[in-house]
Amino acid sequence: MKKWFYGGIPWMLPGLLLSQHGYGQFTLGAQLRTRTELRDGQGAPRTRGASPAFFTSQRTRLMAGLNSYRLKLGLTVQDIRVWGQDASTINRTTTPDNNGFMLHEAWAEILLTDTVSKNRRLSLKIGRQELMYDDSRLLGNLDWLQQGRRHDAALLKYETGAWTAHAGLAFNQNKENASGTVYNPLPPGNYAANTNGGPAYKSLEFLYVSRKLQQGSLSLLVLSDQFPAFQIDSTVTPAQKKWRAGVYNRITTGLYYTSQHDRLLWTAAGYYQGGTNGNGQTVSGALLSGYLQQAWSRQLSTGLGADFTTPDFDPLYGTPHKFWGYMDYFYVASPFAGKGLQDYYLRVKWKAGSRFTAGADVHAFFSAAAIDGYNKRLGTEADITATYTLTSVVAFEAGYSHFRSTPSLAKIKQVANASGNNNWAYVTVNIHPEWRIK
């Protein structure tokens, strides 16, 4: 029976179907990723005397793809849950807020130019998809989060050997309306907040242009996102937002540069953000970042970096976990009083053979703006991670982080009786097989 399942009729069916309608390659994949966490002050300083949290979350994904003549298709369904949230015999405890089964990706990419043109490609990608550009600081798939991030969008792509130009468009609605386009960005159910706890956008447009250089690349991003306008309904207690026609418009633009010479790698980025955010506030902010990395050998490299964000800047739809400490104190779901951030960090990476890698980061965090009655120092975080690849489809990862916080951080995080020592640890098992059928 085992031989029949893996090598027999079920795996032949996609190939037989494709042979009836033209040549193509069919891909099947799966992922099972568990993460066991000990949280003792993750996300914000813990209250003194509070007990640590301990749980295991699981991501289960099934992926399918088709690559045929002038057409690509991608499909990913996933289920995200915490071990034990359902009864062991029948699902009677899961509520809509806990229901983690969803369609993560469903897209088609159509090649608009003829296949005989090898150095110029124009294509249209439509549907639910991940958006990832440059270092994923402003647009990323947030893969660390078990549910990840995706967009319902249309993407026009023009690519040559040296140039990449992408234009994207998204327009969100809650349902098929009979009239009007009023959008509720916070409907009932399990809707994850955007970066820094902001509301979902109603519409989004962006242009991304990148040019390959001799030793690196230079890219430009211009992004505009619109949020539903609202008015405060004070006739109810507590007062609530009432969504109405009209939008608040925000624009973000800037450059990203990366280059390498011998074993020295450096990146730099600068972005400006203006307009009106999802809370109806006028903003004028900026982000500046720089990173320098030296590879001393094939096994060892060290890096030094700095990030600066003004109080008004919001890092859009990126991957904060990758940049501002693994304990997710900044620019995740928990705001920090809109004070902006200074982050100065050291990084060490070590690779022992082809299977084992380890890394350590140390961050010194400061507020970008003054905090009444307090200094700007927010704390220091140390992150240690290790990854062991058992096979091409099985990997293990573990990490430990410690955050030494200050009264200034407790003030802007609004945590009373906050502990100065905070810890977080995790162990991940990632199983990700893939099969290709021609």
Automatic annotation (TrEMBL):
This is Alginate export. It comes from the Bacteria. Residues 27-166 form the Alginate export domain. Pfam families: Alginate_exp. It comes from Chitinophaga eiseniae.
